[in-house]
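Example record

Each entry pairs one chain with its bound ligand, flavin mononucleotide.
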Amino acid sequence: MLDLSTRYMKLNLRSPIIVASCGLTGKLENLMLAEKYGAGAVVMKSIFEEHIKYEIHKTLPSAQGENYYPEAEKYISKYAETYSLDSYLKLITEAKKHLTIPLIASINCVTSHEWTEFARRIQDAGADAIELNIFLLPSNHHYSSEQNEQFYFDIVREVRKHISIPIAVKTSYYFSGLAKMALKLSWTGIEGIVMFNRFFAPDIDIDNFTITPAYVFSRPEDMVTSLRWVAVLSDRLHCDIAASTGIHEGAAVIKQLLAGAKAVQVASVIYKKGFEYIPVMLNDIEIWMNKHKFANLNEFIGKMSYGNIDNPASLLRIQFMKNFSDISNDE
Ligand SMILES: Cc1cc2nc3c(=O)[nH]c(=O)nc-3n(C[C@H](O)[C@H](O)[C@H](O)COP(=O)(O)O)c2cc1C
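Structure tokens for the complex follow.
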């Protein structure tokens, strides 16, 4: 009998596949489907910091620097009309009655002001942990790297003041010193880092001269970015890692665990193939574990991390020496 359980951010997960925060995880029936089909945990759809502030003030400030856009303002006020904060809290309470797997609430945040007390209400409603989905595009040329990074530490510090349940930070790779930043975040006492979120990316419609959303869902080949960084950082961080982006099959889950992730998060594959695909991925993991004679995940988590492979430099290589140099023409 194989054991697929894992421990991620002090939570016991019966399997390493977590359904990531997305539109699907804002509904009780889908949270229950995640449980039914074998997910180890589920991350609820993010509530926006702006939404919390909107309910506090019943108005949105129209200009808050570069992280505030009119489209967001319209979205938040419309969203807040339909979904009150109470309905988010009620969903947590209701979901906890039906689920046995851990329920992770999610807050999409850009500042540490005013809203952080709300985290306590999420804890009181019964969430097992909170994921802070923090991202600031480092596009403001007035801010130094240190100033951009400080936002993250301020948010974590303020949220920690209000809650005792585990906290994960879901982040991006837009840091000039990514390794040090991840290490410093892990020193703050957070229990997990989710590497990495995928964000809205703009495209340009060349006939209508408009900005349009680029592709919404990830592709399997997107997985390699987080794979490298999970492998490079997993031995060094003082908290657990959940890998995210581009994980579409059992083999990708195995790779991320070998790199040192304690769990993975999936969204796009659930949109494309349904919750029913979770057991297919779990079955593929079991087939592979049988083949390699692993009885549980701990026997191979981190086996291919930076500190555990013979040639760690292979994880740091960034140039295609062989493929794009003249030498390749000779082969
Ligand atoms: C339609 C959609 C909605 C999403 N909404 C959120 C969200 O509210 N909060 C969040 O932290 N991530 C959100 N994400 C990002 C996912 O949680 C995930 O990190 C990302 O899609 C990468 O995983 P994937 O490659 O398995 O899709 C969303 C993704 C999609 C596709």
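The chain has one domain: 6-330.
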